[in-house]
Each structure stands twice: as structure tokens, then as C-alpha cells.
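Problem 12. The chain below contains 398 residues. Write out its predicted structure in C-alpha cell notation.
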Amino acid sequence: MNRFRTLDDLGDITGKRVLVREDLNVPMADGTVSDDTRLRAAAPTLLELADRGAQVLVLAHFGRPKGAVVEKYSLRQVVPALAGVLGRPVGFVAAGETPDLADGEIVVIENTRFDPGEEANSAEFVNHLKSLGEIYVNDAFSAAHRAHASTVGIAHALPAYAGRAMEAELNALEAALGQPVHPVAAVVGGAKVSSKLDVLMHLVGKVDHLIIGGGMANTFLAARGVNVGKSLCEHDLAATCEEILANAERAGCTVHLPYDVVTARQFAPYPPTETVNVHEVAPDAMILDVGPAAVEALADVLKTCRTLVWNGPLGAFETPPFDTATVALARTAAALTREGSLVSVAGGGDTVAALNQAGVAGDFSYVSTAGGAFLEWMEGKTLPGVAALEEAAQGSTP
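Solution.
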């Protein structure tokens, strides 16, 4: 039996009212959607259900209204952009209204977080949602780490299925860390070890190569006795870094830290820089990127691997030229993926931005736009929204 049911498991849904949990929490500028990535991700599921004759009711949250009706968080403002992406009309249903739909019609229900019962996963709000539909489809992996009414409660109240975006995400994650082909490499970057402690602790027992970059690498280097000058560094986490390195050694995981680095005296675009061995960092310098020799060695590591999971940049990529290492290694991973030797899965906001900057996001096997959910998955945590779909699949198919 599959871990979860998909749209392929639905029979004739003509005239059926289908509640679809999507992620419509999109960025806005001057009252219009400034990035429609999440809307485009929702399109395949919504169009397939509508084209199969279902009456499609979209559930989503927007912002953090904290259980109150806050007009600036109304989903009404997202509807025109969604209609544009779908290429067909999309209706809107205000809070508390009961919609009257035709077969094949799509409507967006007002922000679920306007009701305090959403985040509390209250039985009352779940019953309200249940009254709106006959079938539930969760297509919002990015909200799967929240045990809310529209992600968990309703999945236990109605026959529950994964939408196409959710299905693709879960299959990609399974290929990356669930049942991956070894050797497996993980790239973990970003500013602080403290924000990714659980990720690192989990990964050393799962992967063959752990590549650490960003400000995090400075903390590990300092723990190893390297003088990192004025670099961003959490010196108080030295013992924690040693524990992670010891766990990695026991698990047979090779940890890769940079041995040459790019340094500067000021953190600004295109300052004077020096590429030095990590043991030669000047007392008044900052490490801002991984050096070219280390990047070349890391590229050779990836060439020996079959699976890659990536979260976080190797350097201060948003400030040139400190995007060089991230772009170079991403292009190597993309080339290996294109030739079919590597399954590459990446996720997290900074990571997506870095891959777009390198021009290779489309070449990775899968790029997740989920933030918190992707990170919690990398920590090995159970995601409530996913667990609810798996539990629904264990019951009899309605």
C-alpha cells in the first residue's frame, strides 16, 4: 500500500465538493502579488480537479492574523493573481458564507486563520470545514509542519488525499533521505549552527558526506582551534560542534569543512578580498566564502555521490563576490543531475534564491519552496500534515 493516497486514487468526482489545502501565502507589493511561485505550484491540482468536474473549494492561510478578521490579510486580494495563473475565473467566499458552486468551478475560502479554531485545531472549526466538502486534498507541504484544522483535523474528518504538489514533494524527499541511493551528500549552510543543530545531528546518521558552509563553518573551524578573526562565529557552541563531529565519525559520515577561504576586512559588495588557508586568517578579517580549492574538492565529492540534499548557501551569497562558491558548486550539482548521475533535492528560501542566482534551479531534481516544513523534515521530525495523510491511507478507501 502507498504511504498516502493521491488524486489517482479518486474515482468519479463529478459534482463532488473537494476541499483543497493550498499555500497561497504569497508576497505582496502595493496590493498585488509580487511572486506567484506558490500559485503556479497549486495550479496542476486545482485544474485537474476542476477539469474532472469537481466543485473546488480552496483552503489557505495568509499572514498571521492570530484568529481575528484583519482586512490586510484577506485572501480576496490573492484571487485575481490565482485566476491569472489558472487562466479561468476564480470565485471568493467570505468567512462564514456557504458557497453555491457549479461543477468545475473554483473558489477561494477566506483566510482560515481568521478563525481561532484553525491554529487550535478545534473540533468546532473542523466540523465547519467538513460541512463545506465531501473530499479533502492536502497540496500544501509548506504548511504540513503545523497541526492545524485545515492540515490535520480535516484530514481525519473526510477522505484525505495528497495533491500533485504534495505528492511530488513527498516523493522527492523520500528519494533524498527516506530511501536514498548511496553515497548521499548533504550541503548545509547558513549563518548559525544554533538554527540548524537538529538538522546536523540528524544528518550525520543519514548521509555519507556532510558539507558545512556559511557562517556555520566558522563555528566548526573555531571549535577545531582555527583562529577565524572577526568572522561570524558562535564560539559558545564549540562543545556542540565537537559532539556533532564525534557522532559523524562514529556513523562513518565524512564532514567537509573549508580549508581555503575568501576573506575581507569589510562586509560590502566587491571589497578588497584575500583567498587564504584557514590557518592564515588575519585577526581583523572576516571569512565570507569558501575558497576555490575547497570548492573544487567538494565538486569531486559530489561526482562520487548518487544523492544530494542541499539547504543553505556556502558563503554570504547575497553580497557579491561572496556568492562564488555557492554558484560554482550548484552548477556542478546541476550538471551531474542533468547527466543522470545525481538525484538533487534542495529547499529553504535562501537556497532557492541562491540556485536561482546560479541559474540552475530548474536543473535540480526537486527544489522545495517550503521553509519551516523542509527544515523540520531535514531534522527527522514527523510532519503532522503528512502523518495525517499517511494515517488516512491506512483506513479503507471511501
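Discussion. The first helix runs from residue 37 to 51. Students who got a different answer should revisit the alignment rule from Section 12.3.
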